[in-house]
Design a protein that fits this description.
Blueprint: H1 2-24, H2 29-41, H3 46-67, H4 76-93, H5 98-127, H6 131-151, H7 184-201, H8 203-213, H9 215-220, H10 225-248, H11 265-275, H12 280-304, H13 309-335
Helix pairs in contact: 1-13, 2-12, 3-7, 3-10, 3-11, 3-12, 4-5, 4-6, 4-10, 5-6, 5-10, 7-8, 11-12, 12-13
């Protein structure tokens, strides 16, 4: 209940401020918000929303895993891209039946992302490089490597764009309907379900939460923070790599340089994880909320002529109000 109260205030404040901005432009706020809802969840927009929810929710879960322990993984983009390019290479060149190659491609994405994220943890544990810096800076070599591969060894010979050939038809995730949503959505939901169980029912989840609540107490209790950092970063990177693999095994069934970075799945996922306080189910709901804002923004622009960038303003204001209200409640708790 306390968490819901903390979330309700910034959400309401952001919506009120958005309404004021809409009124200033001469637009009816109810019509604009109605267009966002109908555009995101109506029959014409629900497919796009779900297709956007998959990478956003997946990256939100990936970043929430270490955030639960007070660790911030800013290298999600590199882990996402590395997972995607690894899955692509397996899908294109590993022989065998289609379903086996799909499974191997997904596994390759998980392993690549996990290993690369664990490298950032090793940099902090062994060399004293803060996790924020090591995870962020390691993203750039990964993205540069993927860009090189799709421009030279993995380039589609029949295209002038920096993109790979399309995966064979038997090495693709099945689609659910015609909205671009694949069975990868079930994999993301499975990851969130496993995260929920581990967080609530296992010693590992308890150690993670204790480390986030009180790092010094966790150290006194004998929790090995370096090992925990490696485990959490590996789980985080593996989830990000899985999201990249799901993306490349879905439409357009190829790796296009920059296609996974431009939509800012990682940063929107981080916003969702922050908004939910890294709570597993809360992170999923926050990811759906942000995905609906993004996809519904196009419908609002068509219906009211209000630029869809307003939804980005709402997201920013929401985070600012969340930070402010969280600080207020935290000070009240300390006084109590």
């Amino acid at each position: 209940m306390k968490r819901l109260r903390v979330l309700a205030i910034p959400v309401a404040a952001a919506l009120v401020l958005g309404a004021i901005l809409l009124l200033a432009t001469g637009t009816d706020p109810l019509s604009a918000y109605g267009a966002i809802v109908s555009g995101a969840f109506g029959p014409d927009g629900i497919g796009d929303t779900l297709a956007y929810v998959v990478p956003v929710a997946g990256m939100a879960a990936a970043l929430a895993i270490p955030l639960r322990a007070g660790m911030v993984n800013l290298g999600g983009e590199g882990q996402l891209v590395l997972g995607a390019i690894s899955a692509l290479a397996v899908g294109l060149y590993v022989p065998g039946p289609g379903p086996v190659r799909v499974a191997l491609a997904l596994l390759a994405g998980v392993v690549a992302g996990a290993a690369y994220a664990a490298l950032a943890a090793v940099c902090e544990n062994r060399f004293g490089v803060p996790l924020l810096i090591s995870s962020l800076l390691l993203s750039y070599p990964a993205m540069s490597l993927a860009g090189y591969l799709v421009r030279f060894p993995l380039k589609d010979a029949g295209s002038s764009l920096p993109q790979s050939p399309r995966l064979p038809e038997d090495t693709r995730l099945p689609e659910l309907g015609s909205g671009g949503v694949t069975t990868g959505i079930f994999l993301v939901l499975a990851v969130i379900a496993v995260y929920t169980v581990i967080d609530a029912r296992t010693p590992a989840g308890f150690e993670t939460k204790v480390t986030g609540w009180a790092p010094r107490f966790a150290a006194y209790a004998g929790i090995d923070r370096p090992k925990l950092t490696v485990r959490l970063l590996a789980a985080s990177g593996g989830t990000a790599g899985l999201v990249g693999a799901i993306a490349v095994l879905g439409f357009p069934y190829r790796f296009i340089d920059g296609a996974l970075i431009t939509p800012q799945y990682t940063w929107i996922g981080l916003l969702a994880a922050l908004l939910a306080g890294a709570s597993p189910l809360g992170t999923l709901l926050a990811a759906v909320f942000f995905a609906a804002l993004t996809s519904g923004g196009f419908a609002m622009e068509r219906a009211t002529q209000v630029p869809r960038e307003l939804t980005a303003v709402l997201q920013a204001v929401l985070i600012l109000f969340l930070a402010a209200t969280s600080g207020v409640f935290r000070r009240k708790a300390r006084r109590a």
